[in-house]
Input
Amino acid sequence: MAPTKLTIIYYSQTGTVATMAARLAQTAEAQGAEVRLRSVGRDGDEAAEGDPQRPTPEDIVWADVVLFGSPTRYGNIAGRLKVFIDSLGAQWAQGQLADKVYAGFTSSQTLHGGQETTLLALYNTIIHFGGILVTPGYTDGSKFVDGNPYGVSHVTGGGNDIPVGDVTNTALDHLVGRVISISQRLNG
Output
């Protein structure tokens, strides 16, 4: 079976979502996937040497699996990621975004900071794409610990900068394993 092609596209303001994206990429590669890690960057920022490349529509067209990551912004995804997603109209109109596995990940400052609504808002667009949502649900014991069946989320601690640790990393690892497994079944 050909390796799963997995694209991770994210926006990270403080580094938390970037840390989560890097973990997803590392785990996917360890499971044999071909991975493209892409950051939409920050307003006015130029990509520095060593930074992930900026995403293009081709990164999604190429992929079997697409994972989107964003910090929570008032219960929604950040504008920078939304601008990229909104640029995909031509690919959507041609059906190039359909029939792929999609999932999301997010972070917020507080425990009830809109993580679930952020993921649900993201998924509205994926439904329009004709994408196949593969959320973790409660398909693994780790999900009863991190508590988010809609995707993966991390609480940074309201300025305390709680680092991404074992609970979040375990949830990220489970999400990658699940999306790869479902994609392989669909494409097998």
Residues 166-187 form the longest helix (22 residues). The chain has one domain: 5-187.
